[in-house]
Amino acid sequence: MPLSFRRHHTLPLAALLGLLAACTRPDSPQAPVAATPTDSATAAATPPPAPAAPTGAASCAQPFGLTDGTELTYQLSDEKKRPQGTQILKVASITPHEAEKKAPAYTEVLLKSSLYDANNRLQRNDEYVYQCRRDTVLTDGRLLLDPALLRSFRDRRFAYEPVHLAWPNQPTPGPLPGGKLTVQVSSPSVDIAQVVTTVSQRKISGPQSLTTPAGTFQCYKVEARYEYVTQARADMARRSVKRVVDYYAPGVGMVRSEMHDADGEPDHVAELIKRTPAAR
């Protein structure tokens, strides 16, 4: 689940975030009802890793082991491993919802996202929602958006139709449901274009050990195909394809996300460098 710093044709915890989309405890020291997902469709050198912050077991009571005030910091790097900025996700609230009629109980997490450039200048603020139901975390489908795709549509209206990505708390190797984000671009009088991100061919493997500046984690690897289409009319579309590899831990969340060109060449990386628990 790439984070939001991606650049189209070269790359939200905005696509990212990004986001920004589980690893278990380290080896050592919107309320929207999510649509049912369907499959239709090394960072730069860093100082020795510090021990990861304590995390709880994966459960829907605490999706990705998050608690009120937990803060996740990601380093964003380009294809040459040069730092391009940081993204900070902070838990604003965690709200349990009881089951109603045929709808199962679920927990909703509201996250505040701040994206900074390489000079630590704030670029944008966003809000995203995670949900957890039936032992699966659903990350906000709006994190699939590459903001660069909308830059040419200034002062237009945007309507978002997300299909959220699923991340099991108890993963087993095999296929995973896909996801999708459709953005309808319009003016007050006419539809202008449709911008669609489709995630397909998701498969999970692992676990495997992964070390970042935030610590060492037992992660599950999720590989997927991302297709980006901007369509202004039926006979005119701009299209590109990326391969994305995510490493996540059910009790932690996203640990590392790698984007590759269709030919396998590295593009962009987002890596967890700090996880700060809520102040007591």
Automatic annotation (TrEMBL):
<dbReference type="InterPro" id="IPR049279">
    <property type="entry name" value="DUF3108-like"/>
</dbReference>
<protein>
    <recommendedName>
        <fullName>DUF3108 domain-containing protein</fullName>
    </recommendedName>
</protein>
<feature type="signal peptide">
    <location>
        <begin position="1"/>
        <end position="24"/>
    </location>
</feature>
<keyword id="KW-0732">Signal</keyword>
<feature type="region of interest" description="Disordered">
    <location>
        <begin position="28"/>
        <end position="59"/>
    </location>
</feature>
<dbReference type="Pfam" id="PF21347">
    <property type="entry name" value="DUF3108_like"/>
</dbReference>
<feature type="compositionally biased region" description="Low complexity">
    <location>
        <begin position="31"/>
        <end position="45"/>
    </location>
</feature>
<feature type="domain" description="DUF3108">
    <location>
        <begin position="68"/>
        <end position="265"/>
    </location>
</feature>
